[in-house]
Design goal:
alpha+beta; Phosphorylase Kinase, domain 1; Transferase(Phosphotransferase), domain 1; six-stranded antiparallel beta sheet; five-stranded antiparallel beta sheet; 14 helices; 31% helix; elongated; disordered N terminus
């Protein structure tokens, strides 16, 4: 494995006001304190430099007492006199240390050397980032979704703490090797993150537009002061698009053209560059890339739910954890988008558990087609209050019961409580206790036992 593939990546972007400036050669007191062979804080033996980002230099070192490799990141000597860079560096350390999830790089220590230069100590990672991986070839759909869901776990905790990353891209998602050969995705580089509630604080004016333009949301390009977690959701949509295709959804020849495309033009449809794209996946990415953030997924849990529904290998516990974290933080997590045939009893019950039993959980209200999935997703978030007649049928085709309910939600709840012998439920309008027009039919899936809408 090459040395460049063994980098604990945590700060890969230069601020726009310094990105084009040459890096000064290491010199002076601060640089000598981080030179190979020096021992920092009496316990970290510096071995060599292994990477460099916009906010500093990354070193490989060894904890001499524990005999363990660590990564040390410090501000470049040429930037120690710049308060904006030092403040961004310290902010990265503070914010990253708050996130305890396994899918975020662990910050183990933060301190300053005698010269006053700050540094942070992080876990040392071996592997490579997804930016390097996608250069070889686009990823299969299942792997791309798996990697993104792992990142969603770390971002759920960050967003629950009010932390917005603001620079999500394949290069900041690191596929680290674990003992035994297993891999894990780690979210890197919280150097330009900030608390969503800290809208007035600015390290520098230009800091509002720090990021990687290809992955920046329209509001981030516009330097909006109220950037929130939905900007990260936009970036994840671009990341997923590139992982699947090796291309970007907004192709452009230069930076001005790119900004115009992101702000005013629709993305190139995923199916135009990836012919095997399921329409549901294209719908997920298109929703991430809505220019109006009110039309995007409103939190990371909603995105994770829809991604998990498209990947059969996904363990439900991962998404349940993401949903739980966001709900505990006060987020209103809407049910999964009703892709054709994808609604299950478990998904609906999990998504709407806080509303039961006084507020019955919403359920699908119509036969689902691809064209009306987005509209139905909104309909699921509101209670339905019109009466229906429900006819319950067993496996022989015999009618077992016919009951009146105040809403489809109530009928769906009742169907979920019935034994497995009941396999079909036809719902009709109920007009003065008289059966009216047919609404929707649910059937019990023989594989999972869950109720799903029957598609005509």
């Amino acid at each position: 494995m090459s040395e460049s593939n063994r980098i604990a990546r945590a700060g890969t972007l230069a601020a726009p006001d310094s990105a084009s400036q040459p890096v000064a050669p290491a010199s002076g007191t601060a640089s000598s304190e981080f030179a190979p062979g020096r021992v920092i804080a009496g316990k970290y033996l510096v071995e060599r430099a292994i990477g460099e980002g916009g906010l500093g230099v990354v070193l490989r070192a060894k904890h001499v007492q524990l005999d363990q490799s660590v990564a040390i990141k410090h501000v470049r000597p040429s930037d120690i006199s710049r308060p904006d860079v030092v403040e961004r560096f310290l902010r990265e350390a503070r914010l990253a240390a708050k996130i305890k999830n396994d899918h975020a790089v662990k910050v183990q220590d933060v301190d300053v050397v005698d010269s006053g230069a700050p540094y942070m100590v992080m876990e040392f990672l071996e592997g490579r980032d997804l930016g390097q991986l996608v250069l070889e070839a686009p990823l299969p759909i299942e792997r791309a979704i798996d990697y993104l869901l792992q990142a969603c776990e770390a971002l759920a905790e960050a967003h629950a703490l009010g932390i917005v990353h603001r620079d999500l891209k394949p290069a900041n998602l690191f596929l680290a090797q674990r003992p035994g050969g297993a891999t894990i995705v780690k979210v890197l580089d919280f150097g330009i993150s900030r608390l969503a509630s800290d809208r007035e604080a600015r390290v520098t004016r230009i800091d509002e537009r720090i990021g990687t333009p290809e992955f920046m949301s329209p509001e981030q390009l516009n330097a909006a002061r109220d950037i929130d977690a939905r900007s990260d959701i936009w970036s994840l949509g671009v990341v997923l698009y590139e992982l699947l295709t090796g291309k970007l959804p907004f192709p452009a020849g230069d930076l001005p053209q790119l900004c115009v495309a992101i702000l005013t033009k629709p993305p190139v449809p995923l199916s135009a560059v990836h012919s095997d794209t399921p329409p549901e996946l294209e719908s997920v990415i298109a929703r991430c890339l809505e220019k109006d953030r009110e039309k995007r997924y409103q939190n990371i849990a909603e995105l994770a739910q829809d991604l998990a529904a498209l990947w059969e290998g996904e363990s439900p516990s991962r998404v349940q954890q993401i949903v739980r974290v966001m709900k505990e933080a006060g987020a209103n997590v809407r049910p999964p988008t009703p892709f054709p045939g994808s609604i299950t009893r478990a998904q609906v019950e999990e998504a709407l558990a806080p509303f039961a039993p006084t507020h019955p959980p919403p359920a699908p209200v119509a036969v689902v087609t691809e064209s009306d999935s987005a509209e139905l997703a909104q309909a699921l978030g509101a209670a339905v209050d019109d009466r229906v007649a429900a006819v319950f049928i067993d496996a022989t085709g015999a009618t077992v019961d016919e009951l009146q309910f105040l809403s489809i939600n109530e009928a769906y709840d009742y169907a979920c409580s019935l034994p497995g012998e009941i396999v079909r439920c036809d719902l009709f309008d109920s007009l003065d206790d008289v059966r009216g027009g047919h609404r929707v039919t649910y059937v019990r899936s023989p594989e999972s036992g869950h109720w799903v809408p029957k598609l005509s």
